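A reminder from the course coordinator: this example appears on the midterm review sheet, so study it carefully.

Given structure:
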């Protein structure tokens, strides 16, 4: 199955999931985080992957740590509004360690 990923890190992560035979869905749902006065969502969060077997969402955050403030705000809102959902956040440092363990190049995960 072919996917158009938003970032090269997502392509690498999907490949690793495939290698280990882990079923995944890419950006399957957007969770509303804020609503306008009319009740229509105006801000949302769409985790990168969902792993059905583990009932877990995965969010890759491979930007430099100083640039992840906005995303961390969304993650905090998500966890507050959807406490029943399991979300694993993989930060740049963690993702680099995963790639090193698999002898993969980490140059493509640096945010543009």
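Designed residues:
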């Amino acid at each position: 199955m072919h996917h158009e990923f938003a970032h090269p890190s997502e392509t690498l992560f999907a490949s690793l999931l495939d290698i280990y035979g882990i079923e995944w869905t890419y950006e399957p749902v957007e969770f509303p985080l804020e609503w306008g006065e009319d009740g229509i969502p105006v801000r949302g969060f769409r985790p990168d992957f969902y792993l059905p077997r583990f009932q877990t969402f995965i969010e890759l955050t491979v930007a430099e740590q100083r640039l992840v403030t906005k995303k961390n705000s969304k993650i905090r809102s998500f966890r507050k509004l959807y406490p029943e959902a399991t979300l694993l956040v993989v930060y740049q440092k963690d993702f680099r360690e995963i790639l090193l363990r698999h002898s993969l190049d980490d140059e493509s995960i640096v945010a543009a």
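The first helix runs from residue 8 to 19. Residues 13 and 19 are 10 Å apart (CA to CA).
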